Amino acid sequence: MSTARRRRVPRRLLGTGLAALLTTTGALAVTGQPAAAGVTRWVTPTSVSYTDARQPTEAFPVAVGEALPVGTWEAAGDKHTARAYFTFDLTPYRGKEIISAGLQTSETSVDDCTKPRELELWRTDTPAATPTWANAPAVREKVGDLGGTVTRCPAYLEMLVTAAVQRAVAEGRDSLTLMARIAGDHEEAKHFGRRIEQPAISLKANAAPEVPGKLTVSGLACAEGLRIGTTTPTFSAEVTDPDKVDDFVGDQVTATFAWWPVDQPAERTEWTSYTRYAPARFDYSVPPGLLVHDGTYAFTVKAADQQAGSDWSPECRFTVDTKVPPAPTVTSTEYPAGWAFPGHGGPGIPGRFTFTAPGADDVAGYRWGPSGATTYVAADTSGTATITWTPTDYGLKRLYVQAVDRTGNRSPLTTYQFTVRNTAPTVTDGNPDGRLGQARQFTLAPNMTDVVEYVWRLNEGAEQTVPADAEGRATVQVTPGVAANTLHVRSRTRDGQLSGDAGYRFTVRTEPTVSSVQWPLDGTVGAPVGSEGSFVFTPAMDGVTEYVYSFDYGEQETVAAGADGTATVRYTPTAAYQHSIQVFSRTGDGVESAAAYRSFEVASLAPDVESAVYPRNTTGGGPGVTGTFTFRPSPGSNGVTSYVYTFRGEPERTVAAGPDGSATVEWTPTTFDEAWGGWNSVQVSARTAAGASTDAQYYSFRIDPKSPMVTSDVFGWQGAPVGTTGDFVFTAQLAGTVEFVYSFDGGPERTVAADEAGTARVSWTADSAYSHNVTVRSRTATGVSSGAAPYNIWIDG
Q1: Spatial distance between the Cα atoms of 73 and 108, rounded to a whole number of angstroms
Q2: Is the dihedral of CA 118, 121, 127, 130 positive or negative?
Q3: Opening angle at CA 134, ends 131 and 138, nearest 5
Q4: 2, 24, 73, 388: least surrounded by Cβ within 10 Å?
Q5: 789 burial level (CB within 10 Å; 0-12, 13-18, 19+)
Q6: How distant is the alpha carbon of residue 240 from its chain centre?
Q7: Mean pLDDT lowest among 54-58, 243-247, 525-529, 669-673
Q8: Element at 317 (helix H, strand E)
Q9: Distance of CA 208 to the CA centre of its chain
C-alpha cells in the first residue's frame, strides 16, 4: 500500500510511532521544494513476515503494527534465529522516473547496545507464498547496511534504496522484496539480535504530463474545415498529469503553444504559459496584427512539469474569415411590412417569413426572434430560410433577424416591422349596473369574416360554445359571483380559424352607497361641529343584512340592515373640517362587499379674532405695547355668552360676551421671544350658557422686536486693524428705554444707561483679528425688553 507526506517525517516521530504513521493512506505534494519536482509517497509493504531457523518449515506473517525479530534470541531455553522479509508493490510506478527512495524504520528493542549494529538489507526474489527458513526466496544482491542516524540505542534507521527501486522499475518488475538479516556469523550470536518496526519507503517519482487534449480556437472545438471570425483568436488546451495526490492536485505543469501559417511552417511562434496545478486548461491569445483574413493556420500544444515533458498534440488547423455577411432581407405574404392600421392576420394566425441575404455566398443560417435574434434556423443551399411564427396578440410587432455565415460571423441586425390585426370580437355589456349575483347579457360581434360560432368562458370557468347568427353575432348570459371579472371570448370561422381573445374586463360594483343630508359627500361644507346628523347606507348587493363602518379610520362598528337592505347611523362631529367614513356591507351568507371610502367637511364654529395692533400672520405692536383683541362668534353660532382664551405660555382665561356676542381683551407683551422669532398666538373657543364649547380658533401674529439701532464711525464695513479703539452708539426704538444690555462676542452682559434722547455710547478695543460682534437690547424702567440687535465687526489680520 502507499501513503504520502508533505515533508520529511521527524526522526523523533518515527522512533516513537512509525508503525502508526506508516498505516496512513493517501499522498501529499512535497512542500519546501518545487512542487513540480515529483510526488513523494510513503510506500508500505504489501506483505511482512519473518522466518525462524528453529522452525524451518513454518512461515511467520506479521500483522500491521507488530515488530519483527532479526538475528538470534532465546525463548524458553530454545535458540531462535530470524530473518525479516518485506515486499513492496511497484505497479503504480510503471513508466515513471524514480527520483529517490529511502527506506526508514526504527529499532524497538536491542539485545546488547554495546555490540556494533550489523543489520544488512538484501534484495531477493519475490516469493509466491509467505517464505519459510527452509523455503526462502533466492537472494540476488546486497542493497546495503541499515545504520542508525543517532548514537542512542534503540535507534532510528534509514538507508537509500534508490538504485534498487530504479532497477526494479526499469526491469518491469511489479514488486520489490527486501530481506533484513544480521551479518555473517554474528547472525547466530544473540548479543547482535534486535527487533525493528515494519519499514516503509519514502519514494519520490514523476510521470510526464499527458499529451494536451480538447484543443479549441475561440471556443470552437478543432475539426476539419474549422473557420473562425477573428484575427485575434484564443487557443485553449487541457493539460493533465498522471501524478495525483489522492483527490487533490499533483504536479505543477506548463503548456507551450506553437502556431504558424500552414503555407509557411518556418514562421513558427511559440509561447510557454505560467505554471498551474494539473489538471488545468491553458489559454493563449494571438496578438493583433499577426493573422489575416482568408489565412489558414495551425497550432499545437505540449505540456511539461519540472522533470519531463509530453509530446506535441495533433495539429489543429483553422481558416480566418472576418467578412461579415450583409443584413438580411425579410418578406412575408401573411404579414407584410408596415404599420398601417388595421394590419393583417391576427393573434393565433401563423405567418411565413422568408430570410435572404443578397450578395452573400456563404450564409449558413439566420438568427431571429420577436424580442431579439435568439433562435437559429439553417439556410438552404441558396442561402434562404423560411420560418413560421404565430403572434399571440395584436398590434405593432417586430422580428429581429441576423444572417450567420459558415464561420459564425453575424450580419448587422434587420428589424422587420409589421402590424397584427385585432381579430378579437367586440363585447357589449347589456347591464353595466347589474348587481352581484344578477344575470347580465353580453352581445358578441365579429371582427373576422365568416364567423360561425364563439368560444367563451367567464373567468376561469369551463369553455362554452354559442353559434353565431347570419350576421356573425351572438349573445351570452352570465351571472358573476365575484366583483372583478373577465369574459374571455374568441370567434371561430367556418374553416376553424380562431380569433384573438377579447378579454373583456368588467367590475360588478358591490360597495354600498353612502349619503347624508347634513354632510354632503360632494365637497360642500356641511353642518357645523356639534350638530347631530345621520348617514344612510344603501346596498349594491342582494341579501345584505348588516354594515360594518367607522369614522376617521377609528374602531369599526356594525349596524343591522332593514328589510330593504338600507341602514342609518347617527353622527355628531366633535371637530371641524375634513372627516371620512368607511363602510362595507355583508350578506346573511357572509359575503362582504368592497368598502366605500368617502370624505365630508364639517363646518367650523370657531370664533373670529381680530386685532389692529397685532394683525393676523404679520408683525405689529412691540414689547410693552398693549394690543386689543376682539372675539366675535361664528355666523353659525347662537347664544355665545363667553370666550375661553390663552396666549402661548400663559394660563387659560375666560371673558364674558357682550349683548352682541362679542368680547374684547387687552394683552401686553413684556419681551421679544427670541426662541420663536417674536411669533405668538392666541387660542379662542366660544361657549354658550348651556356650557357647550365650539372648536378653537388659532390666531398667530408676530411682535415687532423694537430692537435698538447700533452704529459706529470706527468699526464699519471696511474693517479696522487690531488694537483699534472706537465707540458704538446705541439708539433705542423701544419707548421708555432707560438702559441698554449689551455683550461683545457672547461674553458677559453689561448695561449702560440711556440719555434723555434714548441713546448711549460704549467704547471697545479690538484685541484680536477677524470676526467679532456686539449684541444689544434696550430695556425700560418696568423691565420691558426689546429684541436683540446684532452688529458684526471685522478686524484685519
Answers
A1: 14
A2: positive
A3: 65
A4: 388
A5: buried
A6: 37
A7: 243-247
A8: strand 316-320
A9: 45
How many CB atoms neighbour CB 725 within 10 A? Answer: 11
pLDDT attached to residue 246: 60
Q: Which secondary-structure segment (H or E) carries 12?
A: helix 11-22
Domain 426-505, CATH 3.40.1280.10 — does that match?
A: no
With 0-12 / 13-18 / 19 or more C-beta atoms within 10 angstroms meaning exposed / middle / buried, residue 767 is exposed
Its CATH architecture, for the domain 513-603, is Sandwich (2.60)
Question: Could you tell me which CATH class the domain 608-703 is placed in?
Answer: mainly beta
∠456-461-466 over CA atoms, to 5°? 25
Domain 2-206 CATH class label: mainly beta
Mean pLDDT across the stretch 95-118? 93
Run of H or E residues at 647: strand 640-647
Gap between the terminal Cα atoms of the chain: 91
Q: pTM for the full model?
A: 0.50
pLDDT at 637: 84
Distance CA 381, CA 214 (A): 31
Q: How much is the pLDDT for 165?
A: 97
Task: Considering the domain delimited by 329-420, tell me its CATH architecture.
Answer: Sandwich (2.60)
Residue 320, SS3 per DSSP: strand
SS3 annotation, 699-752: EEEEECCCCCEEECCCCCCCCEECCCEEEEEEECCCCCEEEEEEEECCCCCEEE
Architecture of domain 709-796: Sandwich (2.60)
SS (H, E, C) 164-226: HHHHHHHCCCCEEEEEEEECHHHHHCHHHCEEECCCEEEEEEECCCCCCEEEEECCEECCCCC
CATH 2.60.120.1200 domain residues, the chain: 2-206
What does DSSP assign to residue 305? Answer: -
Reduce the DSSP state of residue 397 to 3 states and report it: strand
User: What's the rounded Cα separation, in Å, for the pair 241 and 486?
Assistant: 67
Determine the distance from the C-alpha atom of residue 413 to the mean position of all C-alpha atoms in its chain, rounded to a whole number. Answer: 33
> Any idea which fold 213-320 has?
Immunoglobulin-like (2.60.40)
Q: Residue 378 forms beta bridges with which residues?
A: 365
Amino acid at 326: P
SS3 content of the chain, % helix, strand, coil (to 5): 5, 50, 45
Could you report the per-residue pLDDT of 631-654, keeping only the tens digit for each? 999 987 888 999 999 999 999 999
Q: How many CB atoms lie within 10 A of CB 367?
A: 20
Three-state secondary structure call for residue 129: coil
139 is written with which cell numbers? 537472494
Taking a C-beta distance cutoff of 8 angstroms, is the pair 202, 2 a contact? no
Neighbour count for residue 670 (Cβ, 10 Å): 11
β-bridge partners, 139: 124
For residues 441 and 436, give the distance between their C-alpha atoms in angstroms, rounded to a whole number: 14
Every domain range in the chain assigned CATH 2.60.40.10: 213-320, 329-420, 426-505, 513-603, 608-703, 709-796
pLDDT at 151: 74
| C-alpha pair distances (Å), 351 with each of 334, 386, 758 | 5, 10, 99
